[in-house]
Design goal:
elongated; single chain; 58% helix; 2 strands; mainly alpha; 5 helices
Length: 97
């Protein structure tokens, strides 16, 4: 008999699958269905801001960003909801100046 507060033994495998399924659903969404999914950039940058934080702490964010723009073009995804823009006309269009 199960102790109070612990799940029944037949539920134990399913309890591990729920967070895994949620994580996989998140990865599929941000990589394929997000409005920014078509913008190139590092895989890890599309999933989390930890990529951005790591390079900021190292102090090489500016060099990495320049290299990414050389490799991928004027728009580069630097976070799940962040894009780096290197085109002046696009910046003016985005910010309305």
């Amino acid at each position: 008999m199960a102790e109070l507060g612990s799940p029944p033994s037949y539920l134990a495998p399913q309890l591990y699958l729920v967070p895994l399924a949620a994580f996989l659903a998140y990865v599929v969404y941000v990589r394929f269905f997000s409005p920014l999914a078509g913008i190139p950039g590092p895989f890890s940058a599309s999933l989390s801001r930890l990529w951005l934080i790591q390079h900021s702490i190292r102090g090489d964010m500016h060099r990495v960003t320049i290299d990414l723009h050389k490799r991928h073009g004027k728009l580069v995804r630097t976070g799940p909801k962040e894009v780096s823009v290197s085109d002046l006309s696009a910046v003016k269009k985005i910010y309305g100046s």
